[in-house]
Design a protein that fits this description.
heterodimer, A: alpha/beta, Rossmann fold, 5-stranded mixed β-sheet, elongated, B: alpha/beta, 5 helices, 5 strands
């Protein structure tokens, strides 16, 4: 039916229109007093309103019509050819008193067709705006999903997203992932009675069980172990059981084998197919970040476990070292006394075996010291006495300490120190430890009549050449460094072993070097000590030609406190 | 003859120290726990004390502190013997007043040399 309203108090005019429109498909009504216009159009929105030019208060009337029903066609009924300019502004068309019935009908029909087109356009626009709004809601929700690894927040964002996109009356979200216990989160427009909550709980449990029909559910859910969290928007009003007559949608929140929960949503108006798509999309979208969050949590837990293990390991090493050291001291002391010949005369063969025992006691004690050092550094408990240090002094000390050993092996130990090296901030004793280790290694692995060379130099970070094996693992700040190089003509290191040269116990794999003695901890300790100095260590080597071990320590112009790990 | 007090709960270590020190013409007194060590120190007033750190009842640091802050005993040199354990690390840095630290395992001859230096 086409609703036509005539605003006119002139009976002759109303009669004329009555004749024309009092038939199908028109639903014709007349308003004689324009004061009641607001009430009239609120009861039934007219498709077309015909206003007599002589009607009182025309402007006010038009304003009300435009406000209340903007798509209504306004046609003025005029007596002559002269038209009020004010009326032209609002008019969709005019009918004059001399028009025949046919012309009036055709004018009306043209305008009706136009109105239909406009209505369609307006509806499409509205749909488009709706889709856009929903798309925006989806977009902002998925951005929120990407921004957090907190499961409770993810569930909250999901519910907020549903509200934005679907404006629900109530959502029942069963979450198995945010707490130790399963939680039913009720987001409701209005207050829920206890009975209704119980009913919703049972309904959720039924929904949940239906998801795992014939299969083992991840959790046995019952009304007792299901905790309820309630969020009510307008607590002044209440939902009744008619809620269950509302339109509803249901979706599980899961990804592969991971089940996080499920969601049911209620709305008084019915859901469209777009609503359903949107609902499913959000429920699916939240699964992936929930999975990431689960993995993230597992990583954190694993890390905590690893850290604890690491600490236990350090403590264990420390305790064991202490327990080993004490009996070792007794053995060593006894050997000392026996070897001094104070108890009896030493035969050559007795001396041989006593020396053997002594050598191995010393070796064992070296291993224990190394283990203890390493566990201390790794636990961040190593104390350093940082002070301005001249590297050349350290080199001289190590040379004098080891030149005898080198000589006894028929090796030539030489130094090549750069003069006027700047001082570095370092623990001189630890540097000696590093350099002693490098030179001892060189002595161990170099055959007779060859040369071992210790050199020092000053170098800028951009000129430091680190070979490709170590490049990636070494990060140095820009600036000047003091570089020390220990070069030998020994057995060298095979290419495949080079990368592991600084790994703990790397030497154990190598039977040749095992014969030479040592713990395999010297280089990893050196590496850690240098890292504590903000420096680095690496090596170049060629099998059967020799090795070059380099280490660098930054030259700090102003003496600042270096923070040691731990 | 100079008197030396050796305090260590490890009897074998006490034994070997006693052997070399007696060979170097010192008179040795031995204690196998902190309590006895402290009592003996006050009783015999030795010329030097060799003191282990980790001992039951009273540890070496405590004994050292008690003696070094007492005018009667503060001039007795104390050689502290340490096994560098974690518990000891926690105590390091406390002001104990010990004159010398010796790390286990140590050279017996070194200890004798040090003792002779202090008692010259």
């Amino acid at each position: 039916m086409i609703n036509i309203l005539l605003v006119c108090d002139d009976i002759t005019k109303t009669d004329k229109f009555h004749k024309i429109f009092n038939k199908k498909p028109y639903n014709f009504s007349i308003l004689a007093n324009e004061k009641f216009i607001a009430d009239t159009i609120s009861i039934e929105v007219p498709d077309i309103i015909i206003v007599d030019e002589n009607a009182a208060n025309i402007k006010n009337l038009i304003k009300i019509v435009k406000d209340k029903c903007e798509n209504t066609i306004i046609i003025f009924y005029i007596s002559g050819n002269k038209v009020d300019k004010e009326l032209v502004k609002y008019a969709n068309a005019f009918i004059t008193c001399d028009m025949s019935e046919d012309i009036i009908l055709s004018t009306i029909n043209i305008n009706l067709r136009m109105k239909n087109s406009l209505d369609m356009l307006s509806n499409s626009n509205k749909d488009l705006a709706d889709s856009l709004y929903r798309l925006n809601a989806l977009y902002s929700t998925s951005s929120q999903f990407a921004g957090t690894l907190d499961k409770s927040k993810l569930i909250q964002y999901m519910i907020e997203g549903m509200d934005k996109a679907l404006s629900f009356s109530l959502t029942c979200t069963l979450s198995l992932c945010t707490n130790e216990e399963p939680v039913l989160i009720l987001n409701s427009l209005y207050e829920l009675s206890d009975e209704l909550i119980t009913a919703l709980k049972l309904r959720t449990i039924l929904n949940y069980n239906s998801l795992f029909e014939g299969k083992q559910a991840p959790l046995d859910l019952n009304a007792e172990n299901l905790k309820v969290v309630k969020q009510v928007k307008y607590p002044a009003s209440r939902f009744t059981f008619t809620l269950f007559q509302y339109d509803n949608m249901f979706a599980p929140i899961s990804l592969g084998d991971n089940f996080f929960g499920c969601i049911e949503i209620f709305k008084e108006a019915s859901f469209t197919s777009e609503d359903s798509t949107c609902f499913q999309t959000i429920a699916q979208q939240v699964s992936l970040p929930l999975k990431s969050a689960t993995l993230y949590q597992e990583i954190i837990e694993t890390n905590a476990k690893l850290e604890k293990l690491e600490r236990l390991k350090s403590e264990f090493i420390s305790i064991v070292s202490h327990e080993l050291r004490t009996p070792l001291t007794s053995i060593k002391n006894s050997l000392d006394i026996l070897m001094s010949g104070r108890c009896f005369d030493i035969t050559p063969s007795a001396d041989k075996f006593l020396s053997m025992a002594m050598r191995n006691v010393q070796r064992l004690s070296g291993i224990i010291n190394d283990l203890l050092d390493l566990s201390k550094i790794e636990a961040g408990k190593m104390d350093f006495n940082f002070a301005p240090t001249n590297v050349n002094t350290v080199i001289e000390y190590v040379k004098s300490a080891l030149s005898e050993v080198a000589k006894s092996k028929g090796l030539n130990l030489i130094t090549d120190e750069k003069e006027n090296l700047p001082e570095i901030t370092a623990d001189a004793q630890r540097l000696e430890q590093v350099l002693t280790n490098l030179v001892s290694n060189a002595i161990k692995f170099t055959p007779e009549n060859k040369t071992i060379r210790i050199s020092s130099s000053m170098i800028s970070s951009k000129d430091i050449k680190i070979n490709e094996y170590f490049k990636d693992s070494i990060k140095l700040d820009d600036g000047d460094y003091v570089e020390v190089c220990v070069e030998d003509e020994g057995i060298g290191i095979a290419e495949k072993d080079l990368l592991h040269a600084f790994d703990k116990f790397a030497q154990i794999e190598n039977s040749l070097s095992r014969k030479a003695g040592g713990t395999g901890l010297g280089l990893p300790i050196a590496k850690q000590l240098l890292e504590a100095h903000h420096g680095a260590i690496w090596c170049d080597s060629e099998l059967n030609k020799g090795s070059k071990f380099y280490f660098v320590i930054p030259v700090v112009k102003e003496l600042v406190q270096i923070n040691v790990a731990g | 003859m100079k008197k030396i007090l050796i305090v260590d709960d490890e009897q074998d270590i006490v034994e070997s120290l006693k052997f070399v020190l007696e060979a170097a013409d010192f008179t040795c007194y031995c204690a196998y726990n902190g309590e006895d060590g402290l009592r003996l120190a006050k009783e015999i007033i030795p010329d030097l004390i060799i003191l282990d750190v980790m001992m039951p009842k009273i540890n070496g640091y405590k004994i050292s502190r008690l003696l070094k802050y007492d005018a009667k005993y503060k001039n007795i040199p104390i050689l502290m013997v340490t096994a560098r354990s974690q518990e000891e690390d926690k105590l390091i840095g406390e002001e104990t007043g010990a004159d010398e630290y010796i790390t286990k395992p140590f050279e017996l001859d070194e200890v004798v040399k040090k003792v002779e230096e202090y008692l010259k």
